[in-house]
Amino acid sequence: MNFKDYIRDVPDFPTPGVVFKDITTLLENPEAFHQAAEALLAFTEGLRVNKVVGIESRGFFFAPLLARELGAGFIPARKPGKLPRETRRQDYALEYGTDALEIHAESIEVGDRVLVHDDVLATGGTARAMCDLVRGLGAEVVQCNFLIELQFLKGRDKLDGFPIRALVTY
Ligand code: AMP
What we know:
Blueprint: E1 8-11, E2 19-22, H1 24-28, H2 30-43, E3 51-55, H3 63-70, E4 73-77, E5 87-93, E6 98-104, E7 113-121, H4 125-136, E8 140-149, H5 155-158, E9 164-169
Parallel strand pairs: 3-4, 3-7, 7-8, 8-9
Antiparallel strand pairs: 1-2, 5-6
Bound molecules: adenosine monophosphate (AMP).
């Protein structure tokens, strides 16, 4: 299946100059949704993942599906202030300003084998922040996987040392 047939480019969203990769068209198609989940799952074969971290918010479409298939726990990485218990936080730089992600402090343990999932790898700042957070808690990031990698933004360089897989590249 050519997954690109199910991904729409939306120019100037959410801000001028950005070409937004809209995956809702993929999610709406049962066969494309199924095949994409299967392909992401296949990336993780043999990795013995026991936790899947999904990044708010579009990482939440596939991360729980992957967790379920892998027999792993699903951990939501959320924007600050959303999680009710003690959290661990990682700040990261955006083009203008900073952002941050949090996970529940107890959700990752030393020795965990973690898959980090998001929809798009762009500059890599978001995924890198999550990987650093997971590693800082003593767990291993065994893979970062994405539906889409925007290669021209060189996110892969920022994730140097972490194994990366993506379903489609632009
Ligand atoms: P980055 O930290 O630059 O790798 O950005 C990754 C995050 O921003 C992901 O959570 C994506 O959902 C979102 N993102 C960045 N660029 C795009 C894009 N062109 N289309 C859709 N989402 C994007």
